[in-house]
Specification:
By secondary structure, the protein is mostly beta strands. The protein has one domain: Electron Transport, Fmn-binding Protein, Chain A (Pnp Oxidase, Chain A, Roll), CATH 2.30.110. Helices cover 14% and strands 37% of the residues. The protein is built from 4 helices and 12 strands. The protein has a 7-stranded antiparallel beta sheet with strand order 3-2-6-9-10-5-4.
Length: 190
């Protein structure tokens, strides 16, 4: 029997991504965000929800662009720091020792050290109570060659993305369970 635990911001998994933006002075900034995910296939779009109080909120509204930076497990400390500190108060890239790179596709920086980057132009925003949901059209994806398979697609086992738990914890990936759109057909009897 299931027990009701009430309405909470609880879903599994949620990502631990860095949202890259430029501020009004052209300074690179990034913040950690977990309320995010793919929201459309055609055109390819991603969504991320931020509070108005964040420095990145104003940057996205002004520049109408952002990047989604997917860190590997090797950068869990840095990823957490980008969610603790504010770009209003310090240059987080300089403080933590990561490298901002200017996107050639949108007016936003990405993190050189992270294996996968989605470059997005803002196409919509929605007020949702405490958060604003930003919808970005994915204009390009950049991936380190080391995480690509023989067909040129990123492999999750090589990326080793960080998963955020709403109980304020970070995790790595679990084991491979099966191929999507295939495993459900194996031994499926009615």
């Amino acid at each position: 029997m299931k027990k009701s635990i009430g309405a909470k911001t609880l879903a599994y998994p949620t990502p631990a991504w860095l949202v890259g933006t430029y501020d009004m002075y052209g300074k690179a900034n990034a913040m950690t965000a977990a309320w995010a995910g793919i929201c459309c296939s055609d055109p390819p779009c991603i969504t991320v929800s931020l509070r108005k109080a964040t420095y990145s909120y104003a940057n996205i509204m002004e520049k109408e662009a952002f990047t989604i930076n997917i860190p590997s497990e090797d950068y869990v400390k840095e990823t957490d720091y980008f969610g603790i500190a504010s770009g209003r108060d310090e240059d987080k890239f300089e403080k933590i020792g990561l490298t901002p790179v200017k996107s050639e596709v949108v007016y936003a920086p990405y993190v050189e050290e992270f294996p996968v980057v989605l470059e997005c132009k803002l196409i919509q925003s929605f007020e949702l109570g405490l958060h604003t949901q930003f919808v970005g059209e994915i204009m390009d994806i950049k991936a380190d060659e080391a995480v690509l398979d023989e067909k040129g697609n990123p492999e999750i086992e090589k990326i080793r993305p960080i998963i955020y738990s709403p109980e304020r914890s970070y995790y790595g990936l679990g084991e491979f369970l099966g191929k999507a759109f295939s495993i459900g057909l194996e031994g499926n009897k009615k």
